[in-house]
Write a structure and sequence with these properties.
heterodimer; A: alpha/beta; Rossmann fold; Dimethylsulfoxide Reductase, domain 2; 5 domains; 7-stranded mixed sheet; 36 helices; 42 strands; B: mainly alpha; Formate dehydrogenase/DMSO reductase fold; globular
Chain lengths: 1052, 483
């Protein structure tokens, strides 16, 4: 008999009960509801507890099921991987950013075949690794969805596609044969292109090449021709200058080659406690410019007095005292002359004026002080700007008289930027217009044929920013659209033997550089430069000086306008770049608009409110984005713009930025033709540009009238200008600093001594009863040092950070609500005793990565925490968005995703709410598939409802650590470059491992007399330190000084 | 209950109108058994309308983002947390009346405790909406619960005051709800016993948990009441203390203040009593309960209002003094510029708060005004406006200009959806309150009966003589005799 195993007597005996229960798989009732049919809820068999259990389970299950749904995204791997593409690994190619005459040697970061970031090329001796905001942002222009996608031909009023390049070539060939052809281009710095142009012109007799700059430098070119016999611009060496006098030249912001000049300038502005010596920068201007705000001493004059001021400085060099009404200005001229004379040739005077006479006087001053040969190098000339205003005017006249058969427009947009744009458009319509511009801009839409040229990131090319210094462009991506290099077109149309520009380019440079190897080396390096720098003077012809002084002009009565470029939008060619539109102007902190920059005195006169004396009025002005509107009129041109109140603007002067107000002929088409970001941003004021018979003038007399009952909102990212004497910024003058380097931080040192436990100055250790958990930690500790002395406020770092970290664009409406997302911003403070002409301090502000971070302990879900390397980390997918951390951050660097800025939300279609639209078109622009190609795949795109902030570019740090491990060399992580420090043209941001005494950041911090932490008293223990700003002036500086003086008075 | 009571010879009766026990039941149960009035319907549907608008406002906020509100990089909290603290504050009076006054044997509480407790529960429900829906990702709100999870050692942050809030508010809500409900049981049984329809009998039967009124039931009921009162008493103090920690433990100037816990608790009681006044005055009028909610009640609560209002006033002045005495530049700025300077952008809100909370309640030093229903009603609203502004002042005027002047904010004013959310909680509150008033006894029947004889009889017996006698003689004879 079979052996029987049993578990219970029931099983052994096979009772009826057992059999039944063995059959029944579910011994308890499964669903409570089955019993509810007829018995009613009270008598139901399922007990209440079970009901609650089921209820709880099903609710939880439903919740989980509902919240865990993720969209499925498919990716397809390479069947055959290209040699140089490793998924997830970036490649870097040297190239050159070119836009008009601007050229900056760069390195392009390419990821999976897409260029995503621009970095400076350190091999260039001109820019030395520096970049500008515009260069940083230009990668976004590549993915601009208003770029034209194929060649086009005008058919009636509409444009239609031309199916092939061949067909286009035939059509254009027929259209221009036998006609006078004019090539209207921006300043071209490319030697190969210039050669192609000359070959092309030879093919079409009677044709000519006109170079046109939206903002002209012809005054300088003509003055140099008059005095040195060369229609060129020399090389400037601000690094050799101990004294710099600028007459309204914004050389750190927009003048000529600001990236290059920032590098040079900063080299002489870095103060060392042991050897305190910096250059002295004296600035004369009418409005408040970026460069002016960096000056040691700044003096104001009327725009029409520019020539007179230049002449007065020249005269003062010979001991003549200036006799302006304004005593401060006279003192400034005296000071400038004295310092210039004393510098022994190591001095430089530059002027931003486009007036030939002013520039001749400036040349005479430079000659008189012996600058030529020392700070001005005529052996190497600059090629950034070559346009002559009279040439352009002659062309426009010729076009109108029908003398021009065809106009080939490349890289310029005179239908927008020419002062008499109607006349230009009329002329263009009389000729055959052919546009090579990338988008359907104001000029292209008036052309008959359009053949969009490649973006520089898709091109071969070269640039010669200075004679003998070459910089190369190699494509980092195939052309996205059916576009063709401008040069290829010219080659085709001139019947060249070269098939295309690439072939031509290769043979041109292989020939010039000697061999294929040197050519490849040059491409790889991105630059080819003379082995030794040559310096040289030029013979000065002073014949014209006396005449120039006589014609220098005197002040005109009444109000005047100064037209200027912003570091973001420049001349307007990048107006559809949302990164640049949203970049706050470092001076005004305004985004997305231009405006009338007005001083406090004129504001009082026009609006009856004295914002200096009346705190209520200044509060009311700053807390409301709605600003009063004025109408500015000069001749036929008039424009209504909001008033931006700024101290430090001359009392009869207003200033308006050019580059705004892009608009198609049919305004409704602007959004499709020029772009969603450009539309509605500001007003076009090129119409105020005057012509004085020789050159364009960017200042003119205007009437300014209040527009009653009208306001216009300006989206500012900073509204309060004073630091309120808080320990946020420190500044001193060189004299006090030399005499007693410890004095500037005396107050905080004193406070430390008074408040720490045992009279030490170590807040970190001795101002707390808690143990310092990070103190004993060895290994890496990341830190940053920012030198306020060299930060010029140029904002290249802000755009670099935006590009590197996929920082969202939020549009004007959101910026107005203070919802901007920038991880890094430039804070601007007005300091000093003179509210009419204050000093300006720029302070890059980013997450300070506090070791005792107030944000970390308040997060209920621990979404933000501290790494063992001193990083304050943000875990986006843990964040529930209580915003407590942002409230508790004393530096206000945390940014909240208020709306779905990225389209990354799991809620669909929520960017356009019913009843009111909250997201601007520019946000949609950033969210379309083409534009999203610019995103950095190493950085998470944040979704709505989470906080984000500076991560110290943790993706770069991880990569560097990996490299260090592979190389078995800890030194690799010593001086890692984060995006902001990489971009900085003035080297004011130093980053690295502070536990490594050899790192740059450790060395910077070793300067105890200058290193301070913002609001150190709060004991949040920041990992970012700042260096005191030192100005080379005799004035007492800073709010702290003011206080000290008041204190002394009170004691007395 | 009689142990907790003693018969007062001198006080006026807690229940007017010479009621007997049956009349009490009749009076209080009448609204439940009768058809609701027209006024009730109007009020109810307005409330439901507001509630729906609130739901839509929240729907927008959840779907489109917190950007539907006008908060910004500097002002991370605005109307949302202001309303949260305000509602939590209102939710203090109920438990205070039930628990602390029970322990202090304040017989007068029985007239108002039921409605006040209901108000507490509804107010806390309203308050709870704000911290939940103000989150950027509310669908992840369960992250704040410390539950075992599969995310490794990922746990909530016990350092965060917001987490303490989670515990404090949920505990307070649970205990208040239990307390309120356990008090309701005998009364619901009364309604059940009088029910005429089967459905009513069933519903009230379920709700009263089979209460029979046996001595054992009463004994357990009283023990439970005492235990819950004991539990609630510290909660009354702790909830607002912990809410105040949201601010006090931060470093924001104007928030970082050690005086906050007592000041918040006093403020909460202040606003809570004001809200009780508002509601009671309406209830006694609408449901004709002047005999149960007497002028004596109103006067007693006005006394609490003038006391707590003065405490709050002292706290305001202490804050100012400490800001001056401490000479911390940031704190000085927050108190003397952002708030104290009437001409600064938000100066008006500080002075409005001062007027409503400190100046206006001083009227109640006058007995005449304390016993004036119209004055009390308006004052109760003024106090609640003032207390709303107190939270607004604390939250917004501290953050809009804090440490770093570069980040000082533009002027913050709410969007329609922020206001809508607030109105929505009014809708929730009043919808609940109307339903409560219709379906549950708004006055604790059993408890009011326990005090019916303790004051009324003695008072009546004595006061007829006293009223005739002259005061001096009365005091000499009666008072000295009593001792």
């Amino acid at each position: 008999m079979e052996k029987k195993y049993w578990q219970s007597f029931g099983e052994l005996n096979q009772t009826e009960n057992f059999k039944q229960s063995a059959q029944n798989e579910f011994k308890e009732e499964l669903l409570p509801l089955a019993d509810l049919d007829d018995k009613g809820i009270i008598d139901a068999k399922t007990p209440r507890r079970d009901f609650l259990k089921y209820l709880g389970f099903s609710t939880a299950a439903a919740t989980l099921a509902a919240s865990c749904e993720m969209p499925v995204r498919k990716s397809v791997p390479y069947l055959q991987r290209p040699d140089d593409v490793i998924p997830g690994v970036s490649n870097y190619y040297a190239s050159t950013y070119v836009n008009g005459g601007d050229a900056i040697s760069v390195v392009v970061k390419q990821r999976d075949g897409r260029p995503i970031k621009i970095e400076g090329n350190e091999l260039s001796s001109i820019t030395k690794g520096g970049t500008s905001a515009q260069a940083q942002a230009s990668v976004l222009d590549l993915y601009d969805n208003t770029r034209l996608r194929y060649p086009m031909q005008k058919d009636g009023k509409e444009f239609k596609e031309v199916t092939s390049f061949d067909a286009f070539d035939k059509m254009v060939g027929a259209a221009i044969t036998g006609k006078t052809v004019v090539l209207l281009t921006s300043t071209i710095t490319s030697p190969s292109t210039l050669q192609i142009i000359s070959e092309f012109l030879a093919k079409y007799p009677g044709s000519r090449h006109v170079q046109y700059d939206a903002v002209s430098y012809s005054g300088m070119l003509l003055a140099n021709e008059a005095t040195y016999g060369k229609k060129a611009i020399p090389s400037y060496h601000f690094d050799n200058a101990k004294v710099i006098v600028s007459l309204g030249a914004d050389f750190l912001g927009t003048w000529l080659s600001p990236t290059e000049f920032s590098k040079q300038y900063a080299a002489n502005r870095k103060v060392k406690s042991d050897k305190p010596e910096i250059s002295q920068h004296i600035h004369f201007e009418s409005m408040l410019s970026l460069t002016g705000s960096n000056a040691d001493d700044r003096f104001l004059h009327k725009p029409s007095e520019t020539g007179a001021v230049a002449a007065a400085i020249l005269a003062a060099l010979n001991g003549t005292t200036a006799s302006f009404k304004d005593a401060k200005l006279n003192a400034g001229i005296k000071l400038a002359a004295e310092k210039l004379k004393a510098a022994g040739g190591n001095a430089l005077v530059v002027s931003g004026s486009n007036n030939v006479n002013v520039q001749i006087i400036v040349n005479a001053i430079n000659e008189a002080i012996g600058a030529v040969g020392k700070t001005i190098n005529w052996a190497v000339t600059s090629n950034y700007r070559k346009g002559i205003d009279a040439d352009m005017n002659a062309l426009v006249n010729d076009m109108n008289s029908g003398a021009v058969g065809a106009v080939l427009v490349y890289g310029v947009n005179p239908a927008y930027s020419y002062n008499d744009k109607k006349k230009f458009i009329d002329g263009l319509n009389k000729a055959v217009g052919i546009s090579f511009n990338a988008s359907m801009d104001e000029t292209a839409e008036n052309c008959k044929y359009i053949l969009p040229a490649n973006h520089w990131l898709e091109s071969w090319g070269d640039a010669e920013p200075k004679s003998g210094y070459f910089s190369f462009i190699q494509p980092t991506i195939n052309p996205l659209f059916k576009t063709r290099a401008f040069q290829t077109s010219l080659l085709k149309w001139s019947g060249s033997t070269s098939a295309d520009y690439e072939t031509y380019f290769r043979s041109y440079w292989t020939g010039k550089l000697g061999s294929a190897d040197t050519y490849n080396k040059a491409l790889q390096d991105g630059v080819a430069e003379p082995a030794t720098a040559v310096a040289g003077a030029a013979a000065f012809n002073n014949a014209k000086v006396a005449e120039a002084v006589a014609k220098a002009g005197t002040a005109v009565a009444g109000k005047e306008v100064v037209l200027y470029e912003k570091i973001s939008i420049g001349n307007g060619s990048q107006a559809n770049n949302p990164w640049l539109q949203e970049l706050p102007d470092p001076i005004s902190k305004v985004t997305w608009d231009n405006y009338v920059m007005m001083g406090t005195e004129m504001y009082k006169e026009m609006f009856g409110k004295d914002v200096i004396a009346d705190k209520g009025a200044s509060d009311a002005y700053e807390v409301h984005p709605e600003k009063p509107v004025v109408k500015v009129t000069a001749g036929k041109m008039s424009v209504e713009l909001p008033v931006l109140l700024l101290p430090g603007v001359q009392k009869d002067t207003i200033a308006i930025a050019v580059g705004y107000g892009r608009e198609s002929a049919d305004a409704a088409k602007t959004i499709d033709y020029i772009g969603r970001s450009a539309k509605g941003a500001g007003k076009n004021v090129y119409g105020f540009v005057g012509f004085d018979g020789t050159t364009n003038s960017y200042t003119t007399a205007v009437s300014v009238v209040k527009v009653e009952n009208t306001t216009y909102p300006l989206a500012q990212t900073q509204v309060h200008g004073s630091s309120e004497s808080r320990p946020v910024i420190y500044e001193t003058n060189l004299k006090s600093f030399t005499a007693n380097p410890a004095e500037v931080l005396h107050e905080i040192t004193h406070e430390k001594l008074a408040t720490t436990a045992n009279g030490s100055t170590d807040f970190r250790k001795d101002a707390t009863i808690y143990p310092d958990l990070l103190e004993e930690k060895k290994g890496i500790k990341w830190g940053m040092s920012i030198d306020l002395s060299t930060c010029t406020g140029c904002s290249a770092c802000v755009v670099a950070c935006t590009a590197e970290n996929n920082v969202s664009v939020v549009g004007k409406t959101q910026v107005k609500l203070a919802h901007e997302m920038h991880w890094l911003r430039i804070d601007r403070y007005f300091t000093g005793g003179d509210p009419l002409n204050p000093d300006v301090v720029f302070q890059p502000m980013l997450c300070q990565h506090c070791d005792n971070a107030p944000c970390e302990n308040v997060c209920p879900v621990a979404a933000t925490n501290h790494s063992s390397e001193g990083l304050n980390q943000m875990t986006y997918n843990r964040c529930i968005g209580t915003r407590y951390c942002a409230n508790n951050c004393p530096y206000k660097v945390r940014r909240f995703n208020w709306l779905d800025y990225t389209g990354a939300d799991s809620f669909e279609d929520n960017q356009k709410p019913l009843l009111g639209s909250y997201l601007d078109e520019s946000v949609m622009q950033m969210n379309d598939d083409l534009t999203r190609m610019v995103l950095n795949p190493d950085v998470t795109v944040r979704s709505r409802g989470v906080i984000e902030k500076c991560s110290f570019c943790v993706q770069r740090l991880q990569a560097a650590k990996l490299d260090a491990k592979k190389a078995q060399d800890p030194a690799v992580v010593r001086n890692v470059k984060v995006a902001c420090s990489q971009a900085c043209p003035s080297d004011c941001i130093t980053f690295g491992n502070v536990n490594d005494p050899e790192s740059e950041v450790s060395k910077a911090r070793a300067d105890k007399h200058r290193a301070f932490y913002v609001m150190e008293q709060l004991h949040v223990l920041p990992n970012v330190n700042y260096m005191v700003k030192v100005r080379n002036t005799d004035r007492e500086l800073g709010a702290h000084h003011e206080e000290k003086k008041e204190g002394a008075k009170a004691h007395a | 209950m009689s142990l907790l009571k003693y018969e007062s010879q001198l006080r006026e009766p807690l229940v007017d109108g010479d009621k007997d026990y049956h009349q009490v039941t009749e009076d209080i149960v009448r609204p439940i058994e009768a058809k609701p009035s027209r006024l009730w319907y109007i009020g109810f549907w307005i409330s439901v309308g507001l509630l729906l608008f609130g739901v839509y406002s929240i729907y927008r906020e959840v779907t489109y983002g917190v950007g539907q509100w006008n908060l910004n990089k500097t002002i991370g909290w605005g109307w949302d947390i202001t309303n949260f603290v305000w509602w939590v504050g209102i939710g203090h009076a109920g438990t205070l009346i039930s628990a602390i006054l029970l322990l202090f044997r304040q017989g007068w509480r029985t007239g108002v405790n039921r409605a006040a407790e209901a108000m507490t529960i509804f107010a806390v429900m309203c308050a709870g909406q704000f911290p939940i829906w103000h989150m950027g990702r509310v669908w992840m709100a369960f992250f704040v619960l410390p539950y075992p999870n599969t995310r490794g050692p990922l746990w909530v942050n016990f350092n965060s005051p917001l987490l303490w809030d989670v515990f404090a508010i949920s505990t307070y809500f649970t205990v208040s709800l239990l307390f309120w409900y356990s008090g309701l049981i005998p009364d619901l049984a009364t309604v059940r016993d009088r029910a005429k329809t089967k459905f009513r009998k069933l519903m009230y039967g379920v709700a009263s948990f089979g209460w029979t009124g046996s001595t054992k039931h009463w004994q357990r009921h009283e023990s439970l009441s005492l235990v819950l009162a004991g539990l609630s008493t510290p909660l009354v103090l702790s909830v607002h203390t912990i809410v105040s920690f949201d601010f006090a433990t931060s470093i924001v100037p104007g928030w970082h203040t050690t005086i906050f816990p007592p000041y918040f608790v006093a403020g909460a009681i202040f606003s809570g009593f004001a809200m009780v006044q508002t509601l009671m005055i309406i209830v006694r009028k609408v449901f004709n309960m002047q005999d149960y909610i007497t002028l004596g009640h109103i006067e007693a609560m006005n006394k609490v209002i003038v006391l707590t209002g003065s405490i709050v006033g002292c706290a305001y002045l202490t804050e100012l003094f400490i800001a001056w005495y401490g000479q911390n530049p940031y704190e000085l700025w927050a108190f003397f510029e952002n708030r104290g300077n009437l001409f600064s952008p938000y100066g008006w809100s500080y002075y409005l708060m001062m007027f409503c909370n400190v100046v206006s309640p001083q009227l109640f030093w006058s007995r005449k005004l304390r016993r004036n229903i119209t004055v009390t009603f308006f004052m109760s609203i003024i106090v609640n406006i003032g207390m709303w502004f107190e939270r607004f002042v604390i939250i917004v005027t501290s953050t809009y200009r804090d440490f770093l002047p570069s980040s000082w904010s533009t002027y913050y004013s709410p969007t329609i959806w922020e206001i809508g959310f607030y109105l929505g909680t009014f809708g929730l509150f009043f919808t609940c309150f109307f339903l409560f008033a219709k379906y549950m006894p708004v006055i604790a029947i059993a408890e009011i009966k326990s005090i019916l004889k303790t004051t009324g009889e003695g008072y009546k017996a004595k006061m007829t003589d006293v009223e005739k006698a002259d005061a001096e003689k009365f005091y000499i004879e009666e008072v000295t005799h009593a001792h």
